[in-house]
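Title: Comparing notes on inverse folding

I've been comparing how different people in this forum approach sequence design from structure. To keep things fair, I'm posting one structure and asking everyone to reply with a full sequence. Here's the target:
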């Protein structure tokens, strides 16, 4: 077999080996171009301020590099930046472009860093923006659920356990339960954001460099909360941070999957509690009457995929020794896919809830005398009968139960968190806190990047 080699920035590589080792990076890294340019801008700014003689990069040369990096970001936003197989990844593609435009100056940008900490900072910057987008969509869905709950707080709905009729409940209780679950998920995701919001730059190949680099400066320039302190951990955290974020996303998808499952069931003709927006239902290629809840089924499926993304990354990392290992390359696609699936699922569910129709008569028709069995037992307790005696009395006389008043039943539960004890003001306050978190983080991040690039950010394509 005739051997062939391809020339790359880091030497000649067998064509087959190059294709195998580059993997999906040539495609996936298109989404990291902007992050890589930002990381490079911060790195060269730090190099230009490093106290060495002669300077590695002068301040005027730094400005030239940053101008070219901003131009690359604009090209990327227009879909005109290309990563070749010979580049292998975004890092060498950006370096190639800088060298082509700036000559020897472009060859200096990699001083004191490794592709290992480049990809680490790229993914943290990528995650930073994607998490904030997910937080915004999560808040939108929680808000939609709370609006639905508030509007229909007095609409009775049969509460179920084991999928069987249980006790009187309400649409307000059902919808706000899912909203509260999302708000807990938001707290977990914001914690993951804080852990991700640390700068790994300066780790190089995991062990630092014999140069007086300023890691705090690069962290500040990129709008991170702080640098990762230990340079070995900065690289060891690759995969770990991704798994932490994916774990938080998995909880969001768990909430969405249960919400989707409820809606699939409760929009069935046999229930008819709710009606999905017509535009959210698909038809059948053979059955003219079909209105299928494909959107909800896909959310349920995507939840399983995000769980598998999380497990996949954790499995990749668990057996790795310290320092960089190429296995981590396989985590990138799982990480990106998990964030995209979560974002799209939140987006579609928010719009689904906004268009959901509540069918009051169907909700009332579902109430049978047995749904009021527990209420009747507690009524007997109020008359002085011990609870267990009341329980058995009702159980032995189920056929004698009368149809209760569903509206009175849900109005009677005035205790904290009951059907008539829901604190919508507190819910709305929690949603606003989530929204404010995203707003403040976006503002701080964009301000830092405007200072770094010396131009308006985000860069317009």
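Reply #1:
Here's my take.
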């Amino acid at each position: 077999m005739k051997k062939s080699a391809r020339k790359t920035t880091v030497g000649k590589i067998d064509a087959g080996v190059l294709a195998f080792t580059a993997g999906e990076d040539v495609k996936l890294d298109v989404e990291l171009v902007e992050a890589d340019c930002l990381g490079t801008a911060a790195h060269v700014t730090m190099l230009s301020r490093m106290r060495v003689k002669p300077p590695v990069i002068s301040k005027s040369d730094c400005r030239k590099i940053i101008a070219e990096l901003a131009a690359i970001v604009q090209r990327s936003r227009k879909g005109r930046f290309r990563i070749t197989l010979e580049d292998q990844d975004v890092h060498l593609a950006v370096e190639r472009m800088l060298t082509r435009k700036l000559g020897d100056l472009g060859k200096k940008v990699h001083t004191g860093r490794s592709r290992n900490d480049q990809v680490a900072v790229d993914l943290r910057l990528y995650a930073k923006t994607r998490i904030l987008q997910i937080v915004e969509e999560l808040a939108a869905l929680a808000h939609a659920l709370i609006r639905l709950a508030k509007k229909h707080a007095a609409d009775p709905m049969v509460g179920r356990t084991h999928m069987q009729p249980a006790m009187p409940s309400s649409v307000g209780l059902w919808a706000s339960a899912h909203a509260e679950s999302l708000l807990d998920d938001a707290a977990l995701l914001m914690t993951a954001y804080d852990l991700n919001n640390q700068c790994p730059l300066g780790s190089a190949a995991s062990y630092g460099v014999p140069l007086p680099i300023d890691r705090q400066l690069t962290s500040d320039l990129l709008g991170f909360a702080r640098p990762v302190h230990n340079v070995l951990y900065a690289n060891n955290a690759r995969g770990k941070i991704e798994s932490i974020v994916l774990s938080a996303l998995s909880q969001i998808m768990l909430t969405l999957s249960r919400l989707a499952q409820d809606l699939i069931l409760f929009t069935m003709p046999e229930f008819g509690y709710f009606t999905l927006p017509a535009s959210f239902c698909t038809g059948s290629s053979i059955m003219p009457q079909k209105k299928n809840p494909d959107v909800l089924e896909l959310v349920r499926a995507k939840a399983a995929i995000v769980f598998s993304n999380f497990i996949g990354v954790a499995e990749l990392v668990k057996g790795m020794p310290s320092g960089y290992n190429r296995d981590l390359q396989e985590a990138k696609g799982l990480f990106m896919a998990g964030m995209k699936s979560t974002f799209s699922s939140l987006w579609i569910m928010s719009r689904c809830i906004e268009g959901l129709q509540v069918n009051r008569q169907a909700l009332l028709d579902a109430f049978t005398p047995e749904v009021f069995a527990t209420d009747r037992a507690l009524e007997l307790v109020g008359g002085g009968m011990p609870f267990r005696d009341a329980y058995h009395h009702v159980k032995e006389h189920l056929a004698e139960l009368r149809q209760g008043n569903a509206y009175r039943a849900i109005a009677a539960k005035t205790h904290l968190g009951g059907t008539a004890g829901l604190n919508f003001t507190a819910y709305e306050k929690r949603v606003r806190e989530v929204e404010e978190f995203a707003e403040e983080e976006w503002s701080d991040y964009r301000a830092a990047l405007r200072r770094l690039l010396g131009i308006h950010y985000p860069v317009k394509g």
